Fold each of these.
Amino acid sequence: MDRPLRLVAANPLDALARTLEALLVVASQPLSVDDLAEAAADDAERVEMALSLLGERYHEGRSGIVLEEVAGGWAFRASRDAAEACGRLFERPVERGLSQAALETLAVVAYLGPCSRPEVARWRGVAVDSVVAGLVERGLIAEAGRESGIGGAVRYRTTPLFERVFGLESLAALPRLEELGGEDGEIRERLEALAERRPA
Amino acid sequence: MSVRELELDLDAFEGPFDLLLTLVLREEVPLAEVDVAGIVVAFIERLAEREELDLDACGEFLVLVASLLELKARSLFGGEDGELDELGPEEAAEELARRLEEYRRIKEAALWLAERLAGERDRFFRLGPAPLAPPAERRLAPQDPALLAASLRALAAEPPQVSLKHLELRFPPVTQFLERFRALLKRRSRFDFESEVEGLTRIEQAVAFLALLDLCRSGEISIDQPRPFAPIRVAREETARSEESEVPWTARSA
């Protein structure tokens, strides 16, 4: 009579999928496949298969809850359709009012981290103390040891929260630094275009 | 054409070139954020609109932009002049170009992050502290239930009543010894304190000594002790006593 709801009829992974569902709803941070496998007392391969089952169900457009791979793990989030409603009830304070300086500092730490404040300052050309403190407060970067030597400067790296806020599966999901931009080319093109227009 | 009136439309600044220079020198516009290439392009575009080449304007512009670039380079690498000084001019230029390129890339990366953030603004998720790990399991060695019961029984047994007798100190009144010593002094002019209090308890001895001090204070006796712990010798104060009629006969009564 009271049969449990089945994701896929008689799927052998059904029970595991339900367990993972429960773990993910309880967790407040993304859980890695290893975390899930350990908690569910099952093996990682089966966990991955069960996750793909859950992914079919908790999919944008099919469900108000969406399963996503983010910050090195798996987590539930609200569907984008519900963003407006969520925005009325909650806000995302972590990224509110991130200044240009903060974004540049974040970029340096994300691409070159762990790195110290003097290193960031070298890249940005200005002092970054208050910017770094602000990012630490927001939880987007965190201390990660010190530079070698006595009294070495504290080094910083980005946190899993950074990856989550920016919707990155991991830091490897950032575009390669060498591939960024094109401003160079654009300026060159404009100059070349002008040169062609000018009589020699 | 006037270089100083060149209209600029940059990210960090919008207005005439002249004003930008003023603001930069007053440090109201951070030079690090001024796009010098944009200024150059704007100037060349303006130049292209003209029929003839204005050499004066070009010269002025070159001088201004060169100094602007130098200022910007200095502000970007302020603390490392020494390091750059050690390099040859070409190497220094290369180093500067390399770092400017790095900085531009970081700016691009920041732009990418900003765009990414704008695109992710409609992703809501739960945030919270990491859940507490379950407490570590503490395994105990197997225990004999009978032994546990015996231990518990020992713990549960009523403890023996502790005697409080030593707390009930009885202090005899000082007056008792005052009267006793005064009576003694009527019969004898001097006595040994030790022999008088011999056989009494420590408390009684202490109170007797207080009585002795009291008598000394009122000038009825004098006390003498040749050295520490030697017997205390008590003598009737003859001068004080001589005025009283009842004492003379007691002088040698001992």
Amino acid sequence: MLKFNLIVFSLLCLLHSNLTHSSVQAEETGLEDMFAIFTEEEIVVSALKRPRTVLKSPAIMSVITAKQIKQMGFRTLIDVLKIVPGFYISMDETGEREIAVRGVLDDASQKIKVLIDGHSINDVWRGGAMWNFDDLPVENIKRIEIIRGPGSALYGQNAFLAVIDIITKDTEDIDGFQVTTSGGSFSTQNYNLLFGRELGGLKISGFLDYFDTQGFSKKIEQDVLFPAAASRSPGQSQNRKEKTDLNLRLSYNNLEVKAKYMKKRRKDYIGVGDALNEESILRDTYMFTEFTYKLSLSEKLNMTPKVYYDQYNYDPFFEQRPDGHLGVYPEGIKGQLRFKQRTIGFENQVNYKLFEGNELTFGLQYEWIHQHDIKYGKNSHPITNANLTTVTDFTHDLPFTRKATRHIYAFYLQDEWNITKDIDLTIGVRHDRFTRFEGTTNPRVGLIWRFIEDAHLKLLLATAFKAPSFQEMFLTNNSVKIGNPSLDPEKINTFEIGLGYHFTEHMRASINYFYNRIRDKIILDTATPKQFQNGGGSRIHGIEAEWKADFGNDNYVFANYTFQDAEDTRDRNRLPDVPVHNGNIGINAGFCKYTNANLTTHLSGPRPREDGDTRRDIPAQALVNMTLIGKNFIDNFEVRGSVFNLFDKSYYDPAPQNTVPTDYPQQGRSFTIELRYQF
Amino acid sequence: MINKTRIYLVLIIILSALLHCSYCAYAEKTVVVIKSQDISAYNKVVKGFQDECFKNDITIKSIYDLNGKMKIGQKIVRKVRKEKPDIILAIGVLAATVVKEKIDDIPIVFCMVINHARFQLMESNITGISTEIAIEDQLKGFQSILGAFKNLGVIYDPSKTGNIIANAEKKIEDAGINLVKYEISDSKEVSEAMKNLIGKIDALWLLPDSTVVTKKSFGFIKSTALENRTPLLCTSDVFVKAGALASVSSNHKDVGKQAAGLARKILELSMPGSLGIVYPDRFKLTINTKTAEKLGLELKEIKNGTKINFYP
């Protein structure tokens, strides 16, 4: 027994001495340190795996960061989009901001897909997102990625001319609280609380935002009814608005929940039908929630299923014509509309690394969209316009739209292949099948070639589609315009070529050419009432150029220029209301750690009229904005002051012919002061 | 009766004290150190940095440790911001990446980032010390042991050290040496690579490439090279201590000292910014005498301008 114990002890001693020796050797040589440093590298490489950079993205792309947003004094999403090449913003008669992209301005900006953290916020009634979200607060935006060009091969409907993806801040970016309060011209006040905290494995971030303004008011000399006695012109336009925004992001391990709520009440700028009004109130509520689960099945295979629910409530009161209109309507023409829209969707995206440098993305999506709870009351007959003594309920007899359901089934496939270290190829295709029209298949091919150091060439080919909106399909019992349930989607074919070059470490420039051909456009015909029809097309080509010189420490200069030649394919008339030439110039100076100054100028050439409109073109304009930031005077405290339209330039956005002859006047010089505190 | 002289004297003393305090407050330059993890290599850098800062009247306010986790970077950055240092020293790629991502208004000096170009640490507020020694100096060091050699082999993963090869290729050629490259994308390919290279090369250059050098593969590379009497030349002395023939590399403490020197230079600038990425200003040739003996090399006649360390 003693012998056995001795042997065991000797063996243990030997084992221990070997183990000790090997660990001491590793410790002594520092090899363990080296492997620990290698592990560190892997952590960084995997953490930095994020959306492609502008250079590597198979699209013509702009990225605007939170810092730029702050430096330029932007307050809303639409302010940010003004500096994007190829984008042009103008306002319609209701006060809604509409985005023209690459020469095409259409109702409700429905040819642009807008996403918040990958979740679409385009509403189905109009097809666009700007009615509800043109004034989206920017306080919680980390960056905005804008694809100028079609994106239906990945994003489906409405990704026709551009895709705007808004990436919000999370706990990594906030970690605490930030309170922002601002006030300025037109009795504007804005309060924002941004928060982010990690509680164990649970990450919570979001914001609350309250905005209230009287808005700018301008004298309208003549509205559509002028010189009729009942016309309120000359009179003042209105822009009062009150809005509440809430955002919430929760994540625990692989599960993420996103939620948004927005409620807005505002006046009608001039009024529906271009008649000055006093009583119209536009009320909108939008909310969504999305559950995403990130599943890593192996090193090469990842799956991201998500389910989501969206609800949009539209509940406006319209004063279409003022009291005494035509001597027939003593109470004017007024109406109350209401509908609710619900979307339930499911999407599963699978990413598979076929081999090093080649990643396959495959996805399935299903969406159920339902329009219901329709209410309609009016004090005139919806079809004959006969005067009625009181507001009468037409919900059941002559509703303005109807209950409708749309199912969308889609699948997509994309392969991103880094063929050599200098050549990337992306090939993708998506097929969408809608309830009311045959399926549409949209491919795209993108080739990026870094042909010399610091320079790249992009060649892009794609098609995209815009599904008809519910308004275009189901608007009914209306004496002015009606929908058409048989509409087909609009289609676009695009070719783009882009060249980018980093001249030095501090200076870069890019230029790209695009050619778009649109067919099956959805337009109103000339019948009475007018009806939406597929007809005609457009041909647009142009050049976008960007240049930026960054000298460090927040000192930079930038400029961009867009030339866009857009015409109808049928009669070759120039597309109206969008300038042929426009651009932006800006300078930012980070004088020292205490101050930052920014001067940005939006330049626009004349905006042409539609064919047959004899008014002279809307003149060229230059608008200058200035922003000063004071920081680091007091811990975690910042003050920002901005002056918009610094030189009080008088300018107008285009009104259709035979409506408001002198167009829609825009705001003169205005200012805001903002205080921000982090804790 | 109040003595006016005394009152004046007290006032002068108070004023002088105030002036001195404000001068000190103005003159005091502070730095915060963030290291990626608690390893001996990084601690040696901190030690060198502390010594040199002390000489240069730079106060180290805090030393933070990321513990190898990127997640806690945000919290540490918040703490750093509250401390308002004049400069930040980031040790290791984790720390350098965290501060690069979150801080753009305070000058940053990074060091101990292997192959820094891979992590794009170029910003207007970032200065760095490369871990790589200029290829000409490496070759000079290796040639001082081996004499003139013709074929230098290298195994590398293009996604990790491809840029080091691209930058060195021309300079190696200019030195009259033929670089025999072997690309791999998985550490499993190391044995195949060694089989292919052995016999075609006079020496093997071992890069700090995590696909090539793993806990498993290093032993294999070392023994295969030795069996075939192929000198193993490295960019870090840790491999020499573990059995490779030689390396040309910097000393961690010296890197810390150099970082403090750069911090001082940045603070002297009227507008603190970047001084770019610099090579280590001091480096040494390390030779494993046992390995040299096994390879049959004569070390007595080595003539080299740089410092030589013999191990063991």
